[in-house]
């Protein structure tokens, strides 16, 4: 019987490094897609509004403080909802877009 030849330690490490780089790239892309998906990101409208304000005002953050505050309050509100659902064992932890519309309708508008 022939003994199996094992790959050298160097080639093994190179393969691991390449797979780690590839994994990082796909994680980055999925994160970017996640931020632009309305089903996942409940504050997409506020995020886009603050980004647009920065573009219009040549990155003058003082002019966009109201937009930043709305975005921050939106994130805080939905984070609280998500944590409550997690404690209650409801999945998905972040409600989908249809559920969020129902939640906001029951509150008679956005509280942020």
TrEMBL record:
Q: Where in the cell is the protein located?
A: Mitochondrion intermembrane space
Q: Which GO terms describe its cellular component?
A: mitochondrial intermembrane space
Q: Which GO terms describe its biological process?
A: mitochondrial respiratory chain complex assembly
Q: Which InterPro entries match?
A: COX23, Cys_alpha_HP_mot_SF
UniProt record similarity statement: Belongs to the CHCHD7 family.
Please state what the protein is called. Coiled-coil-helix-coiled-coil-helix domain-containing protein 7
Which gene name does the record give? CHCHD7
Q: Which UniProt keywords apply?
A: Disulfide bond, Mitochondrion
The organism's place on the tree of life at top rank: Eukaryota
